Amino acid sequence: MANAPDFDVVIVGAGISGINTAYRIQSNFPRYRYCILEARDAIGGTWDLFKYPGIRSDSDLFTFGFQWYPWNRNNPIATGESILEYLAEASSKHGIDKNIRFKHKLQHASWSTEYQEWTLSVTRGTKATSISSRFVVFGTGYYDYSTPLQAHIPGLDTFAGQVVHPQFWPSTLDYTDKKVVVIGSGATAVTLVPKLAEKAKLATMLQRSPTYIVALPNRSARSLVDYVLPRAVALRLKRLRWIVTSRLLFLFCRAFPQSARWLFRRGTLRLLPPTMSFDPHFNPAYDPWTQRLCVCPDGDFYKALHTGRADVVTGTIRTVTPAGIQLDAGGFLDADVIVTATGLKMQLGGGATVDVDGRPVAPADKFMWRGAMLQDVPNAFFVMGYTNASWTLGADATATLAVRLLRTLGRNGGTSVVPRVRNPEALELAPLMNLNSTYVKAAAGAMPKAATGGVFAPRGNYLADEFRAKYGGLDGLEWVRRGEGDGKA
User: Could you give a GO molecular-function term held by this entry (predicted)?
Assistant: First the structure.
């Protein structure tokens, strides 16, 4: 008889996804042995890694926070520091922190059909070890922590000032009274510019094309339910209201794009300083929610423009010189610091390699079942959030689905469950993430495949996905007992 594995479940990553999954596992399977492998020396994931000025959420915390530990502050948009404190509170209160193994980086995961378990190769500094587990949950997010998306900017290596990427912001950088140019127009750039403008001589956002920047009041008004219902109930209702409201906004933008464009234009014009034109700086070529909307709490981005210490320039770069950036249209931007906020390098599984019975798994060759499991990879869940809603909602839908499958296996006496694609030629391909952002397009050859319908379709609606996770069909799965299965990968 084979020895029992070290753990029932190993969770990779102690960020929002990992902590949420840990709660779902320990509350549903109190006798299960589990641990969290965290490569860094602290919890938080993204919120521990990114240290750039003004780092904050770009989703409301009522839905970005945990369903089982509601965000109880009034501000829907929170600073990175506040989010880290919240994660520490949640994990400590529920004893999750006791199961975290810090500075443990997963290098490789190998599935054995014979033994029906995973062997995980882990490094801790210079030491290597292995851990066995029945199940693995990759709560590692969707981007490469060690390597940002490389922007090909001509002449950047000739720049005499400092070049910074937000993913690795140096704590010693002093930009006081300096001219800072932020290249990019995504959430990071929109977050950085107002904060940089507080100290910099001028903070300029240089964008190739504009994005939708939506001002959101950063205080949640108290309603009648806050006064008449118990606090826990009121917080759950507030969370549900934000879920529904966000979903309705997304559906409205997709169904009535011209009306949505008109509304966003009207809101932006009301906030712009009179010296700045709407077109071309705030008039995107794409419809709302074709790419993710950028949020600025209390309109801080627009307020920074009114101070004269922030600016927006739309154009393409001809070359970077020692003194700044030469634009194709002829303009020149003086710069002391250049920030390349050009996106993230997408990655599945935190960079760990995977094999099934010795055969390497290439994620780009596989379909994702219910947005949570890779085709032909047993007992492994990949936690993916939403691009059109808060990440945590999608992460929780994955955790709910994982709990259901683990419970079904236990009830049926099975040892593993694996998605299979019987007729791949019958599946019509669809993007896994329904966005056309530059960093998403750049990852087309690295991320798994999706289909236009059925169990291999991408997710995007939390209420529907949560329902399917609990009660939906389990088509496309193969249930295995020890000694069965072909280990196909």
Answer: monooxygenase activity
